[in-house]
Design goal:
about 500 residues; Nucleotidyltransferase, domain 5; Hypothetical protein af1432; 3 domains; six-stranded mixed beta sheet; five-stranded mixed beta sheet
Length: about 500
């Protein structure tokens, strides 16, 4: 079996073709061409027509190579530069029309998904990644993508704008001496890592793993005594400090001459050294691990081996782990959030057919149920509005921008008014997505009302339908439900307007 992956990166366009060889990959072809999309996307906001045409030309050449190798399983991916371009949709449509290639634009969660699955496959006999709490970092030209992983479950994924191309462009804008430029770059990187440390908080990090495709292979030019038994090796804090010290006071020309480095590496190697050094601040250990591989190789392995998505990699489980982490991070009432999510799930399964819902819609409802009170972190007043913009800014594991908008809107409408024409985020959704938001919000309102006291009085619900399809919600409890009943009567109105059916509450002692 053969497969090919084309990676449309921020500074280059790459093709790798490979096939299975026992439990590993045999690379049959590897091509790379400079294609600086990020040069325009990061600072001008758009990819120029000239670069779009250049991309098309390179893709046509790659298609011919793929044909020569008789490969039919082809994946085309794009990352930061395409994801952040304002004309992303035009770029994707033009490529599809002119080459027939459909591009999958990956977000940070997607990157983590492929990297984590590949790490587990590649290192399961030597490094128990699903038994550790890890910071996994993937360094590219456009960004440094970080994932916090708790024993195989991604708790948080975030991208930082300190990729190597961005650092090079940032450096070009600094006016000053060599020392002043170096200090500015160092402060720029450390500022981002400080923010990451705040996000991590008290999470106990066992190890840091850096995924590095391009730069670690030059470590031995500068540190000839660096031990590298394989392409997965430990890098010590003392080595990192020496690495940084050897580069700190040298110009690019001096680095090229002293260490025999290509100019494109010498231009950013000190920024790479600063990133390495700051990663040590995320762990109490005096070592990090470096794996020399690429995102495209991880995706190639995923295609060739068709990784079995075990419980550790299950998308729903990963997303719910992130929701738990966010509840704790924002000091939410986790027991209430978990209980409302449970009631929502019970309502969903019993209303799914009647409301024309699909099984995939459940994760939107569940995440909104967990996060509906997240806005209280800012203020109790109008916390539904705060919840909307907090959720809409999150990077949720393997969810698209539209899916995150849907979740944010469901959470917003768990209280107060129904959607209005003045609500910008809601009105950015399609008509089909808007009606989905209304249906799921109506369920969330009722479920939330049934735990208004935040004491989890109700352990389950049963829905009974009469001939007119009116609904009776039957709950059993030995507690006083006066508060919950009052809120149920208030919050059921949206549900009745959407369905055209009455819904009532029956309490069993």
């Amino acid at each position: 079996m053969r497969a090919a992956v084309i990676d449309i990166g921020s500074n280059s366009l790459k093709l790798i073709i490979g096939e299975k060889e026992d439990n590993d990959i045999k690379i049959l072809e590897s091509l790379k061409n400079v294609n600086p999309l990020g040069k325009y996307s990061f600072f001008r906001g758009r990819i120029s027509q000239e670069l779009i045409n250049q991309t098309i030309s390179l893709l046509e050449k790659y298609k011919q190579v793929i044909k020569e190798y008789e490969v039919t399983d082809v994946r085309v991916i794009a990352t930061t530069a395409v994801r952040e371009a304002r004309n992303k949709d035009i770029f994707l449509d033009t490529i599809l029309r002119k080459t027939g290639l459909k591009i999958e634009v990956l977000n940070v969660g997607d990157v983590v998904y492929y990297i984590d699955a590949y790490l587990y496959h590649k290192l399961k006999k030597t490094f128990p990644i699903h038994e550790k709490n890890l910071v996994i970092a993937e360094l590219g030209a456009g960004s440094l993508d970080i994932s916090i992983v708790e024993k195989g479950n991604a708790l948080m994924s975030v991208g930082f704008p300190i990729g190597t191309l961005r650092l090079k462009q940032f450096r070009s804008r600094i006016e000053g001496s060599l020392e002043e430029t170096y200090t500015a770059v160092k402060e720029y990187i450390e500022h981002e890592i400080v923010y990451l440390k705040k996000l991590i908080g008290d999470f106990p990090v066992d190890d840091v793993v850096l995924i590095d495709e391009s730069y670690s292979s030059f470590l031995q030019n500068i540190l000839p005594n660096t031990k590298r038994e394989s392409n997965f090796f430990r890098f010590m804090l003392s080595e990192s400090e020496e690495f940084l010290s050897n580069l700190a006071d040298r110009t690019i020309d001096e680095i090229i001459q002293a260490y025999n480095l290509p100019s494109e590496i010498a231009e950013i190697i000190d920024g790479y050294a600063i990133i390495l050094n700051t990663l040590f601040t995320l762990t109490k250990k005096k070592q990090i691990y470096i794996l020399e591989t690429s995102l495209s190789e991880a995706i190639l392995a995923n295609v060739l081996f068709n990784f079995d998505l075990s419980i550790e990699n299950n998308k729903t489980k990963q997303l719910l782990s992130i929701a738990h982490f966010l509840c704790q991070k924002y000091n939410m009432d986790l027991d209430h959030a978990r209980h409302v999510a449970l009631l929502c799930e019970q309502f969903f399964h019993q209303l799914k057919d009647a409301l024309g819902l699909e099984q995939k819609d459940l994760i939107y409802l569940s995440l909104a149920a967990y996060l509906h009170d997240i806005g209280m972190f800012i203020n109790n007043r109008a916390h539904h509005k705060h919840a909307e913009y907090i959720i809409s800014s999150l990077n949720l594991f393997r969810l698209t921008d539209d899916e995150i908008k849907i979740i944010a809107c469901i959470a917003r409408y768990h209280r107060k008014s129904a959607p209005l024409p003045t609500h910008v985020l809601y009105n950015s959704l399609s008509a089909q997505q808007q009606i989905l938001v209304q249906k799921l919000s109506a369920i969330l309102r009722i479920a939330n009302a049934l735990d208004r006291s935040h004491t989890q009085k109700i352990k389950g619900v049963e829905l009974k339908f009469n001939k007119a399809q009116d609904i009776t919600v039957v709950v059993s409890t030995d507690k006083n439900l006066s508060l919950e009943k009052a809120y149920f009567m208030d919050k059921k109105k949206m549900f009745e307007e959407i369905t055209g059916n009455k819904i009532n509450l029956k309490i069993k002692s």
